[in-house]
Amino acid sequence: MGRIVSFNVGKAHAHDVGQVASDVGVMVRAGHHCAQPLMEMLGEAATVRASFYIYNTEEEAGRLAKAVKRASELLG
Amino acid sequence: MVDESMYRENILDHYKRPRNRGKLAHASCCAEGDNPFCGDEISFCIKAGKGGKLEEVKFDGHACAICVASASILSEEVSGKKLSDARACSKEKLLSLLGIDPDPTRLKCALLPLKVMKLAIYKHLGKKMSKEDEDLV
Asked: What is this model's ipTM?
């Protein structure tokens, strides 16, 4: 089963969080996700979006968690 | 191992304590630009002084760390310079001040402030932006 989650990390811009995730080999999407009206309604410039599927491992999820923590320390 | 090369000390310093950020009272000209792919939005206002110099420059907007740091560093670099020299600032010069070598996507974040700052100067001078500057982002 797949799961998808959109989030932000403190005040960090979604692209910065995406960059930090990318640096540990985790690919996420960052931006409007073709949903600008929703972003405006939420008052967010952009969000990070991660999706998990059957081929993802727990180790990879752990790497994403570490990247989020790192982004929070660096930029949040 | 996290590669923090993009978020080195000077970038984070300018991101967390941006120089020349805010509104500019009695601006000679303002310009704005955005990067729809990532949501960066930046505006630049300039105040032209005596002798064709850039007396003051301020930027504002919502943007990622690379874009904010770039705008902050650029504003420091061009303040007090001649309008013509500020307009001639090259992307290579800005990237060397930033000290990073971004991938093509993040390059747009880094160069958006340069294009918007130049646009404000072009508008003030009543001139059309050059093709080279148009293609910055």
From this structure: 0.77
